[in-house]
Amino acid sequence: MNTEQMLLSLTDLRHDLRQADFPLDLPEAIAQAGLARRIVNQLNDYVLPRLETIDAPLLAVVGGSTGAGKSTLVNSLVGRVVSRPGVIRPTTTSPVLVHHPDDTVWFDGDRVLPTLVRSRVVSNDASSLQLVIEPAVPKGLAVLDAPDIDSVVARNRDLAAQLLQAADLWIFVTSAARYADAVPWDFLNEAQERHASVAVVCDRVPPEAMREVPADLGRLMTERGLADSPLFAVPETKTNADGLLPERAVAPLRIFLSSLAEDQQKRRQVIASTLSGAIGSVCERSSYVAAGLEAQVAATARLAEDAQSIMSEASQSIAAQSADGTLLRGEVLARWHEFVGTGEFMRAMEAKVSWFRDRVIQAFKGAPPEAEKVSVAVESGLESLIIAETEAGCERVEAVWQADPAGRGVLERVDEDLSRPSRSFEESVSRMVREWQGDVMELVAGEGMDKRSKARFMAFGVNGVSVALMLVVFAHTGGLSGAEAGIAGGSAIVAQRLLEALFGDDAVRRLAKVAKQQLDARVDGLLTDEVARYQGVLEKLGVDEELPAQIRTSIEAVRQAQEAPESTDDQVSVRTRLQTREISGVLEPGNDMLVLDAELIGPSVVVQPEPRQGER
């Protein structure tokens, strides 16, 4: 392992994970957000500090179920009461860390568990870490009594999980009555998945079950990949006046811990094993976080695409209806007839198309045009069409988002009504239509003409010619039927013949095409602004499109650093299994301790003999 490269890569990964946010209500988003926080905590609490100080004391965290006897076990290992056990649940609320006086420098600062406040006095505050100096604890070892993993208090459960993530060695305490419960195994399975160093203590084993219970627990551990983890069985027995277990009940565990503390090589092996597993687990879980962030990005893009697509459809509908004759009805037709002449005159004109050119010119000459009224009617009709289609589009966007869990969450967050256009939309539409009418005037005013046509143009006026071009733009009658289609179609033909008399056939087609393109472009711009409103809402969520890739890049850098050549000291086994082929009970002289050898049934099993007379 390249330690320097590893520190840099993990620091980058921590920075990336701190930015992880899951604002959209997607499946597993809450779990992924919580996981990102826990990974950051583990990097802060354990991985980075341990990489920087590989020779710091080994931290053994004692964790387990409610009432398993963790505090009693810690006190008995130390030889005095340092952690207060009790019958009221939860018992341990503030974690207690016991260490040798020479190791004070390692724990007074924030090297490990930096979020916990250091204290040298008893506390019930779950945010504090009580530090206890104890010469009886071997130098190079610290023992931490953690809250219950199944505490009724959520803060205690979270703290217990955080402390276990900061351990070089888990000492997992369960009882003969609860060793098969689901909650302890959830933690043990997690330990196995990240290859953490684990020792299991089965406490309060009835004397008559000292052979059966440890063997069954060993079988379960083997089935779950913990075959190499030592298992210590402590019999049910009386405590002394200070509430401590008999010396011989905790001797095997004390010897195991002392051997780790005294042997620097062995201690580094345990640390290296847990550290390597923790880093691998960080990478795996960070990949899951990255996948969740990618889902956030995809959902955000999907919602934005829905809004864009629906508004594009609205724009296309406006484009179609502004060319299929839909606008050539009602007020527009009436004002156009007034502009050209009387209704009777127009109908006569429409009946004899062959006369159109001469009669139209005669109708205009010398007559004061009422082009402004037609222009106002066109403006009103076009505005109404654009507003109606945009309102329908907004309603569709809101409905689509409402049907999507991610979109539903977004709608619940915003203060404005996204089912309606923006408040200034109608004013923007009115301004846009007027600007387009100005575009049309510029088109006809800038078109080249001979002297005769120019004279006619002056007679009709810029407004009059512009209105005629607008009607040509709206010329097709696909949206109309019956008598209305005939009237509208005839009106468009009158306008077209008028323009042809001025500019010629080709010029009219070109002018109509350009005018329509300008109208469609302005409508697109208007609706693009409405789409931007939805995009703005999504952007406020703060979903970083680049972050998932950054996290995956950091993960790859960590893996490369981990795969670098390791030193010989790091390539070791941390435990040795007993491999005798039959079960035998042997009293070791001077120790009064029974060692039960398992016939390859699983973990190394160390148990105590039945309590002596009067000890129960």
The helicity comes to 55-70%
Provide mean pLDDT, rounded: 80
Q: Please report the number of helical segments.
A: 19
Q: What's the number of extended β-strand segments? A: 11
Could you give the distance between the termini?
51 Å
Class of secondary structure makeup = alpha/beta
How would you write the strand order of the largest sheet? 3-4-2-5-1-6-7-8-11
Ranges with pLDDT <50 over ≥5 residues? 86-90, 342-369, 477-488, 567-602, 608-616
Major pleated sheet: 9 strands, mixed
Radius of gyration: 42 Å
Please name the defining characteristics of this protein.
616 residues, alpha/beta, nine-stranded mixed sheet, two-stranded antiparallel sheet, 19 helices, 11 strands, 9% strand, disordered C terminus
SSE layout:
Blueprint: H1 3-18, H2 29-52, E1 58-64, H3 70-78, E2 96-99, H4 104-108, E3 117-119, E4 128-133, E5 141-145, H5 154-165, E6 169-175, H6 182-193, E7 197-205, H7 212-223, E8 231-235, H8 247-262, H9 264-321, H10 330-340, H11 343-351, H12 356-364, H13 371-403, H14 405-413, H15 425-445, H16 451-473, H17 482-503, H18 505-539, H19 547-562, E9 585-587, E10 594-596, E11 605-606
Parallel strand pairs: 1-5, 1-6, 2-4, 3-4, 6-7, 7-8, 8-11
Antiparallel strand pairs: 2-5, 9-10
